[in-house]
Fold these 2 entries.
Entry 1:
Amino acid sequence: MRVGVLALQGAFREHILVFEALGASTVAVRLPEQMEGLDGLVLPGGESTAIAKLMRAYGFYEAIRGRLETGMAVWGTCAGAILMAREIGDARPDQEPLGLMDIVVRRNAYGRQVDSFEAPLHFRHIGEPYPGVFIRAPYIESVGEGVEVLAEHDGRIVAAREERLLATTFHPELTVDLRVHRFFIEQIVAVQ
Ligand code: GLN
């Protein structure tokens, strides 16, 4: 199994370390060609406008949509979840999401940087409270019919899955708890 982590901007190193700890072979993806043969791809947290600009400059929009059709799984964390969305709730005109997943996401939904916080989450299929680290996090405003809600916080959706797509508005790569990464590998990437 090979998992790539988009390594243009943001918290990609942390994801790579977790996947390596779980024994998955991992690629830091800087060019679309590096997605060939990948079973899964992570769009990390960071700054969604910066990541989107770089993705467009390198031709990632078309390439990711193409690889999706050939079965690659995709997991977006925080900024990555914003990029996966069908729609960004309060988007500026220059912000076009990839439109991979049938979710509407609201950016910086909890306010400013100081409003970053940690909260225990009940994450479906994972069990015990999972430590959710929220950093200028978005939340998922609404989901389409085929989307399973996996976690909520304060009545707002913070994790969801649609077939081979996973979106989390928090940062599992910044905790020592490997269960969401394991869930992605075992329940999404490995299931064809
Ligand atoms: N607020 C950031 C954005 O809109 C996301 C923050 C994050 O990824 N931690 O891109």
Entry 2:
Amino acid sequence: MLPKKTRAEIERLRAEIREHDRRYYVEDAPVISDAEYDALMRRLKDLETRHPEAVTPDSPTQRVGGTAVSDFKPARHAAAMLSLENVYGEDELREWHARLLKNLPPGEPPVFVIEPKIDGLSCALTYEEGVLVRAATRGDGETGEDVTLNARTIHSIPLRLGSASPKKLEARGEVYMANADFAKVNAEEERAGREPFVNPRNCAAGSLRQKNPAVTAKRRLRFLAHSFGVWEGGEPVDSEAGFLKACAAFGLQPVEHHEAKDIEEVIRFYHDFKKNRLPVLAYSVDGIVAKVDSYAQQKRLGSTAKSPRWAVAFKYPAQQASTVVERVEFSVGRTGTITPVAKVKPVFCAGVTISSVTLHNFQEIGRLGLKVGDHVLIERAGEVIPKVVKVAADLRQGHERDVVPPKACPACGGRVVKEEEFVAYRCDNPSCPAQLKRLLLHFASRPALDMQGLGEAVVDQLVDSGRIKDVSGLYDLKKEDLLKLELFADKRAENLLAQISDSKGRPLERLVFGLGIRQVGEKTAETLAQLYDLEGLAAASEAELTRIQEVGPIVAAAIHGFFHSPETKRLIARLKAAGLNFAKSAKKAASAKFAGQTFVFTGELETMTREQAEEKVKALGGKASGSVSAKTAYVVAGADAGSKLRKANELGVKVLTEREFLELAKR
Ligand code: IVH
């Protein structure tokens, strides 16, 4: 039996990881570093390994990566776009290397190719007969977004490859923005009164995913090739170094590379690059990538569901700087959580000037032993929101003061309560304006009710003027109300009202998610909306909710508590009167394309592991089996297929290549 505490921790980790995935992949605005994200994921994996009964198909550990939510046409990748395993420090790198050697025959030590790890976003460029026909983002690794029109505006992406390029090539690489160009874009954004981008990566992502390619064109994005997904026809290459050389010959700019004969040389390069190159590099690099050079060895090593075994990202630690805490302010989140923020003496770190540093919660302040007036070491990990890593207590002069949790909400003066289990202080006032502003932004966000045009400035004005008291107030807005706001002319007001009106008919899961119930992310909202209509959900008991597979006691208590407050009851009644869709959503029918068909995989597959292939079959309603019989529908034969292939031929069972199988699964 899974102990209650472990189950709660697993759920908390999953909810946290999903939230970070959403911020990273949907909003391009991560709030934690890659290292912190990896630590959460590792902890979850560790718990799931020890308690395999707790693994659910929707756990973040079970996917290749990312979430695809978008306005762009989906673009399925011919071969999954995997990510890289990250290591932090020499010990972890050596462990990776030891694993590598175990999987290679003795006496064949691998030679490595080392490249900088460009901190951009991956992009797959498909060339047919040398002509660029598609550019796609990575998305969830299986399906990305078709950003061809935007990619065509990037000068370092050739529209046509030079001679001798393969018949079909899907080159993969990084779209990124140079630091100087990033600074220019941000200056422009600030002049226009918009929020600046947090870092060049997010800026590049936001620029590539523009609806209007003319905006992308202005942003001066660049592209460096580092791998490929498809290579058909033409002169084949047999190593990473050979591939990068070929890229240059075709007119694709390859990432710079260096060869290393052993792991010690990789380590030396890592330090040397950090000392001599990083400080003068024109763009952001967050580590080095070491790859086994030989494709024959790469093939032998294969991949896990998430990353190839033949490559590793050896990351640089975050960049750090020292400064002084001038004061601590408190910000109020969507659910009333009060987050302490240190206002520090402005300091330049990792390419930007920092004056605000999140302190997360009071437990963190306690752990750091931080006082106002302290000298602190701050760090910008992976170029995300900076944090305090250390307090220099020995530099204290006696005037430093303890940080005192606020007694009253800094936004509304409401009562502040402490919640043990969440280590947080919260404002208890349901009509606190700061909470309401955050909630409105969440309610209107793309994965929720998706009202474009309801940005921060509008929300501030609507709440500050007292025009809106809760989210249902959006549905009472009249054109005259909007015209009274600054910057609102006819057209803009009409557009926003149309968006608000459209939102009434959105599927229930978006409303459930949009309500901002603590612990309820998109996936849980979807499950709930498939089981209940909104009023049924509001009436569900805690015990009943706990019986739902992915809802544990903490989540059940949060849902129950939310719906049982008088404010929520009033809100639900108002949303009903406004005509929002409360109806239960239909379960997404599991695809039955392969229903009743058994597949047998044999030999070595190129683009996926055996498990991934079998998963695909199951997802489409079919069965995977280990042995061939007359009842087998298809045998999918990879390289070096042996007895099963013979048997299939004897029995007259249809044999597919891996590519044919993928085609069949796609149709
Ligand atoms: S090789 C799976 N090489 O890092 C192996 N990736 O976490 C294919 N990246 O999504 C990628 N610089 O977009 C490779 N020199 C480099 C890279 C690089 C940056 C990105 C890549 C990938 C992510 C992996």
